[in-house]
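In response to the reviewer comment on reproducibility (Comment 2.3), we provide here a single inverse folding case reported in full, input and output, so that an independent group could reproduce the run without further information from us. The structure tokens appear first.
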């Protein structure tokens, strides 16, 4: 859905247009879009080709596999997509002469039932901690699966996994506008501020290693930012509860759309 929206979005330029072919000759990889007057180079990656059942059953056959190794192997396709996007953003900025532009990757899950936005967030967090130097923020979203809030109403969480830098803070402001415009375009209510208090996801098999299904959940709490706050202490407390990349005082909230 986000890719289709950006193709008609007034703040986006599609780099697949023929007028940009001359910039990307000789096999240079290009990103998908320029956003907000070329201040942001954006690559969209749709996650849809992971064979979840096959992957889980394959990994289940390994004896005593650790959680860390499971996530490393299971997230391999997502990791490759992020690495590819990192290179595309780097080459696009060089080719277009906008080396100071901000780097944004949008990961959108298109797999129903067996994967969720939590998987994208976890994979992005782990990958960004070890590299992806040309990506300032990874925006993770999922419009095919829903969670239930405390009132039993369906919600779809959207999370910006970001670095503790001025560049990421600047990009977060553009993302607020992007998500607001996206929701207005699709006539979807947008709810914030919220933060994720705790999250969990499990892929299960039976005693014979046959895949049984996927379950995920998280707890939400409202968040009211304070002007004078010990943000380093807040970050330390937050990281002890779950596994996001360090959040920033400027956007210590998540987007939740119904």
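Designed residues, in position order:
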């Amino acid at each position: 859905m986000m890719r289709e929206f950006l193709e008609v979005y007034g703040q986006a330029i599609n780099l697949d247009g023929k007028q940009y072919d001359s910039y990307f000759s000789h096999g240079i990889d290009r990103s998908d879009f320029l956003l907000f007057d070329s201040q942001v180079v954006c690559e969209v990656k749709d996650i849809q080709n992971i064979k979840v059942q096959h992957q889980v059953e394959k990994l289940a056959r390994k004896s005593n596999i650790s959680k860390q190794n499971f996530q490393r192997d299971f997230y391999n396709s997502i990791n490759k997509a992020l690495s590819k996007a990192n290179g595309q953003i780097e080459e696009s900025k060089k080719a277009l002469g906008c080396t100071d532009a901000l780097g944004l990757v949008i990961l959108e899950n298109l797999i129903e039932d067996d994967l969720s936005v939590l998987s994208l967030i976890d994979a992005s967090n782990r990958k960004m901690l070890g590299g992806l130097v040309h990506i300032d923020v990874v925006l993770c979203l999922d419009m095919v699966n829903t969670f239930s809030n405390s009132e039993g109403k369906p919600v779809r969480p959207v999370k910006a996994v970001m670095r503790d830098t001025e560049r990421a803070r600047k990009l977060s402001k553009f993302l607020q506008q992007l998500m607001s415009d996206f929701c207005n375009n699709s006539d979807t209510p947008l709810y914030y501020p919220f933060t994720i208090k705790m999250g969990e996801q499990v892929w299960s098999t039976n005693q014979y290693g046959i895949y049984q299904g996927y379950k995920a959940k998280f707890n939400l709490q409202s968040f009211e930012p304070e002007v004078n706050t010990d943000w380093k202490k807040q970050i330390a407390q937050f990281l002890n509860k779950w596994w996001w990349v360090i959040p920033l005082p400027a956007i210590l909230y998540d987007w939740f759309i119904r």
